[in-house]
Amino acid sequence: MRHITLIVIHCSAVKPDQQSSAAQIDSWHRQRGFHLGIGYHYVIRRDGTLEMGRPEYMVGAHCKNHNQHSIGVCYEGGLDIRGNPADTRTEAQKRTMRQLVDELRQRYPKAIVVGHHNLNPLKACPCFDAVKEYKD
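RESULT FIELD:
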């Protein structure tokens, strides 16, 4: 069993007129050489639907140097219509993300919630302050 210390929130970096389902992200990641496919454990669609990515027992491929001890959660969106980083989460995504984070915290009570940009300052992802939003 993996020792989970982080829940890392990501965005899929797509514009409002683009989609990014778990299946699409899986395809993109395979094209980039991720032999096990999608690097995230969960994907939250704009309508709030939660899609499964990698099983939690498997190490993710979503945040360099932190995959061994983290769960990766990705929401569909993150860019405005011009392609600039923006918090594009819908109310449905926010509700689903809150539920998922609460469930993950129950399973991994010592895990802290961070945004990808907190671990890699060169990233804008997830385009909102996850640390502040999911403070205990």
